[in-house]
Amino acid sequence: MNTINNTESSSPKEKLNFLVTSWGTDIHIDDVRKLTNFSSWTTGALITETILKSNYIVDFVYSPWRKRPFLHNISDWISKFKWWEIIPEQLEIYKKSMEEYNMYCENLNEIVVKDFYEYKDTVLNIITWKKIDVVILAMAVSDYWIWKNDGKIPSNLDFMTLKLEKLPKIISYIKKFRPDIFLVWFKLLTSDTNKDDLLETAKKSLIINNQDLVVANLLDTKTKKLDNTYIISKQWDIVEIKDRDSLPEILLWIIKDSKK
Known about the structure:
single chain; 260 residues; alpha/beta; Rossmann fold; nine-stranded mixed beta sheet; two-stranded antiparallel ribbon; globular; disordered N terminus
């Protein structure tokens, strides 16, 4: 097993086109309730930043009001903005974030999707009609669907049963539509499993979905933090990520090295 703590970015020989998905899709039960996940999911935005800084082109698919490349540092602050509480440090963060966004946004195409089916149509349309070389699926997509009730389900019910319908895995469509695409998927298991289970699950996914890389993560259900992260190739090369902050650069380095 290889261990990498940091890496240096290099200038690309050609201008690759990336599709990156980020955050997650919500499933609405009624007009006021929904099924979602609790992750902060800045990973997709951070990966996109690293790709853009290497002078590549990115289609960035994300959920409404979620964290965007370069702007995730200020999104929470803007939503709670109070002019009488502004401090110089916040203004500097805002200024730097906007400067970086404006510097790289020419190569960034942002697409908002509201639910699973909009996500599915958007991803498949992009890979069908655009020149996409690499797909990175970092979005936590819903595994199940429920038909939404109009209005609000009464809150005085003693019991409520939800019947969920299994949704198709979008990753299974990618190589069928575009066999030439370099495909990266994120897989998450919780701490009630172990590293061996995680790696075995990742290996099965590589085979079933014909993907090129899987980023496998173990989530500590108590702290809600990622304990272990590995990048695994279809050749069964394993890179352990010791420093989570280094993941975007290491991932891009591996992709570029594989595309040589």
